[in-house]
Design brief:
Blueprint: E1 12-23, E2 30-41, E3 45-49, H1 56-63, E4 71-76, E5 79-80, H2 86-95, E6 97-101, H3 112-122, H4 129-138, H5 154-166, E7 172-176, H6 184-199, E8 203-207, H7 211-214, E9 219-224, E10 227-233, H8 237-248
Parallel strand pairs: 3-8, 3-9, 6-7, 7-8
Antiparallel strand pairs: 1-2, 1-4, 4-5, 9-10
The structure holds adenosine-5'-triphosphate.
Residues 23-24, 30, 32, 50, 52-58 line the site of adenosine-5'-triphosphate.
C-alpha cells in the first residue's frame, strides 16, 4: 500500500517570506511593504485592510506576481515566483492567477462572452461558447452574454470580470477593491459570489476599505506602514471597523 503524504505547501495557496518593496530613492524612498511574512491558506478568503498608503495594493501585486519584491520570497503553491523569469511569470499569471480590479477593466469593444473568453485565447485554448455561456450563467448573467460593458450595470460588469478571472480556474483569485465602485446592493451581489466561490474551495485574497466586505471573508489582515500588524478571524463589520480606526490613530 502506498501512503501519500501531502507536502506541507499543499495547504498554502500563496506565501510571502520576508518580503519588502520600496519605491523611490534616497530621502524620498518609501518602504511600501516592509518585511512581511504571511501564508494564505488554500480554500480561504482573506481580506487585507489598513489605512490609506499602508501597502495593501503593493502587497497584493507582489503576491500576484504583478510586481517584483526587492527582497524575500513569494511562493505560489510550491513555485517560487521571485525566481521566475519574466516570460515564466507572464505564463503563470495567465494560468494560475486571477485578478479583478475596482474599475472592472473589461474591454469595451467586446461582449461579455468575448471578454470572458479572452484569457482562454491568451492561454492558446480555443474557448467553447457553451463553456463561456455556462460560466456567465453561473453568475446570473446568462441573458447578458452578448451585451457590451457599457450596457451592463457596475455589479454586472464586476461579475463578468470575476468570471473572466476565473475561466482559467486559477489557484488564487486576487481582488483589489472589487466593490469599491459599486452601490451597496451590487456590492452585496459580488460579495455573495465571492463567498460562494470560497465555500467551494477557491482561495481569494482581497484588498478592501469596506469593513462590511472584509467581514464576509474568513479572515482579515491589517497592515500599517507596510507591516503586518494584526490578523483576525470571524470578526463582525463593527469589530473590523473599530480595529481600523485604532490603526488610523
Ligand atoms: N508606483 C509607485 N511609485 C511610488 N510610490 C508608490 C508607488 N506605488 C505605491 N507607492 C507608495 O507606496 C505606499 C503604499 O502604497 P499602496 O498603494 O500599496 O497603499 P494602499 O494601502 O493600497 O493605499 P490606498 O488604500 O490609498 O489605495 C504609499 O506611500 C504609496 O504612495
Amino acid at each position: 500500500m502506498t501512503t501519500t503524504i501531502a507536502p506541507r505547501a499543499a495547504a498554502t495557496a500563496v506565501a510571502l517570506h520576508g518580503v519588502s518593496r520600496s519605491y523611490g530613492r534616497g530621502s524620498t524612498a518609501v518602504r511600501a511593504v516592509d518585511q512581511v511574512d504571511v501564508e494564505f491558506r488554500r480554500g480561504t478568503w482573506t481580506a487585507v485592510m489598513g489605512p490609506s498608503g499602508s501597502g495593501k495594493s503593493t502587497l497584493l501585486h507582489l503576491a500576484a506576481g504583478l510586481e517584483r519584491a526587492d527582497s524575500g520570497r513569494v511562493l505560489l503553491g510550491d513555485t517560487d515566483i521571485t525566481a521566475a523569469r519574466d516570460e515564466e511569470l507572464t505564463a503563470l499569471r495567465r494560468t494560475r492567477i486571477g485578478f479583478v480590479f475596482q474599475s472592472f477593466n473589461l474591454i469595451g469593444s467586446l461582449t461579455a462572452e468575448q471578454n470572458v473568453a479572452l484569457p482562454l485565447r491568451l492561454a492558446r485554448r480555443r474557448p467553447g461558447r457553451s463553456e463561456v455561456r455556462a460560466a456567465l450563467a453561473d453568475v446570473g448573467l446568462a441573458d447578458r452574454a452578448r451585451h457590451r460593458p457599457r450596457e451592463l450595470s457596475g455589479g454586472q460588469q464586476q461579475r463578468v470580470a470575476i468570471t473572466r478571472a476565473m475561466v482559467t480556474r486559477p489557484e488564487v483569485l486576487f481582488a483589489d477593491e472589487p466593490t469599491g465602485a459599486l452601490d451597496s446592493t451590487s456590492a452585496r451581489t459580488v460579495l455573495d459570489l465571492l463567498r460562494a466561490m470560497a465555500d467551494n474551495g477557491q482561495s481569494i485574497v482581497m484588498v478592501t476599505h469596506d469593513p462590511a466586505a472584509a467581514a464576509r471573508a474568513d479572515g482579515v489582515l491589517f497592515l500599517r506602514d507596510g507591516r503586518l500588524v494584526d490578523h483576525v478571524t470571524g470578526a463582525s463589520a463593527r469589530e473590523v471597523a473599530d480595529r481600523l480606526v485604532d490603526l488610523e490613530h
